Amino acid sequence: MRLELCGVTAGYGTSMVVRDVDLTVPGGQVVALLGPNGAGKTTLLNVVSGLLSPRSGRVLLDDVDRTKDGVDARAAAGLCHITESDSIYPGLTVGDNLRMFRTPKLAAESVERAVSAFPRLGQRLGQAAGSLSGGEQRMLSLARAYVQQPSLVLVDEISLGLAPMIVTEIFGYLRTLVREGSGLLLVEQYVTRALDMADLVYVLARGQVVFAGEPSELGSSDLIARYLGEEMTAPASKRSRSSRRSPAPRAG
Ligand code: ATP
Known about the structure:
CATH topology of the largest domain: Rossmann fold
Number of domains: 2
Helix content: 25-40%
Strand content: 15-25%
Distance between the termini: 33 Å
Radius of gyration: 18 Å
Bound molecules: adenosine-5'-triphosphate
Largest sheet: 6 strands, mixed
Number of strands: 10
CATH architecture of the largest domain: 3-Layer(aba) Sandwich
């Protein structure tokens, strides 16, 4: 599914957080949306999924104007939004999280598919999702997306607060989603990891797009140092341990 944002301006109350944003995710491709804390990345994902209505501009999915559609209609069209916090139901078991909103036939298939792709969850099907480790909860979010076979997945900081080894595993699962045909719009604090898997990258700063292009073009600009952390200016071989931006406290 191709996503196109045309001139999107959005915010909260009278304060506009993103302004006049044009952004495209071609079908089946991975697009990284990077930028400093507070740049408006989460706000933009919320506009794409329908959680937030833009003040102006349009959201197109496969050339259909979805700007006025709600979250459910966009989800039915194949969009899946994995938010920072609430993409699982903690009081339900892992199995029920996977079976949710599926017909009885699809429910059994969903669990089977999820267990084969995410074996670690297979051992925990009867366990309350809220009792999983942080990393396992993120895996469950991804597994829930995976079983729905979405055309486009919006992923908001899925690695936040996780140990590097688990992050590697999570990125492996993101690649699984892409192999199965999903496109990704990826907001991610691990800049190097995001750039490694991205076909295209956008940098958002103070609510506006300051770069759109291929990851290799970004590497040769000074934008990484300016907006994404100075450590990224080091040669690739030296930056593997230090590509994580320090998360700043969220305002608001
Ligand atoms: P981070 O990398 O820190 O998650 P971000 O780029 O995702 O940041 P947003 O979360 O979109 O940025 O926030 C952009 C701005 O919008 C911030 O100044 C934030 O305080 C403000 N904001 C976010 N959500 C709301 C809200 N519900 N009501 C009012 N202001 C908000």
